Amino acid sequence: MVWEVTDKTTGDHIGLWYLDPFARPGKRSGAWATTYRSHETFDGNRTVLGSNNSNFIKGAPGEPVLVSWDDATTFFHEFGHALHYFSSNVDYPSLNGGVRDYTEFQSQLLERWLLTDEVINNFLVHHQTGEPIPAELVAKIKNAATFNQGFSTTEYLASALLDIKYHTMDPTGLDVDAFERQALESLNMPDELPMRHRSPHFGHIFSGEGYAAAYYGYMWAEVLTADAAEAFEQAPGGYYDKELAKKLVDHLFAPRNAVDPAEAYRAFRGRDARMEALMRDRGFPVPGE
Ligand SMILES: [Zn+2]
């Protein structure tokens, strides 16, 4: 189905949003968001043509479509990318891109709305009884979110730090095996923990420029996400606080790559993002708290 997207205050046409939720033969697997045309005003006012795509299985006739928790999270995530496209107010087409450690932030943040009361009570309802998902189950989902974070964070960071080391040194005659061992030792890497990507198959950082010295970017996006989520949690209206939502759109969605992301974040939050938010989010003790 296709929806027309308009600006609620001015009534202006923003674009068309195409939702293609169901699996069918020949369709690519997984879920994604994409644009067929992006906003720009450089060559006349171009409106957005964007889509969200997933592979939900249609219910049998008369049966509802049931979606797993993971798929629901991904659906919100991909919709975050779409909101980012549709919010664009840049003039030049080249400014619709984004810097690497920032492109997943807007979509990761959108995942947080899934567990708000408004969504729980209106959408996360039992398909037969119409009852919202029980509070105990919501508590279990929240508790499970911090499971094994020590392992995955350390495993990830080892690869992220090695990536930076590789791209800030002279690699002439490098003995990769010895270098990796020595680097991990200098990080006090626990013996029990392997790297997420050992150097010889770390294709992410060696196959192109995109993630070279920027593998850390996934986690930096999560720092921004956790810190922005705390802003919403502390706002008077919570995740539905209009004033903060406007700041989010004005500073973090609409400018795309036209404003330095660090500056844009400061305009939204009044300060830089703090990594302590991510530590709380992952269930780690925060020094001094
Ligand atoms: Zn994404």
Characterization of this structure:
With 289 residues, the protein is an alpha+beta fold. 41% of the residues lie in helices and 10% in strands. It has helices at residues 69-87, 105-110, 117-122, 135-144, 149-166, 176-186, 203-206, 217-234, 242-253, 261-269, 276-281; strands at 2-6, 13-22, 32-37, 48-56. It has a four-stranded mixed beta sheet, covered by helices on one side. A hairpin with a 6-residue loop joins strand 1 (2-6) and strand 2. Helix 9 (242-253) packs antiparallel against helix 10. The chain is globular, with a radius of gyration of 21 Å. The protein starts with a strand and ends in an 8-residue tail after the last helix. It binds zinc ion. The site of zinc ion has 4 residues, from helix 1. Zinc ion binds next to helix 1.
Brief summary:
This protein is 41% helix and 10% strand.
Keywords:
single chain; 289 residues; alpha+beta; 4-stranded mixed sheet; 11 helices; globular; binds zinc ion
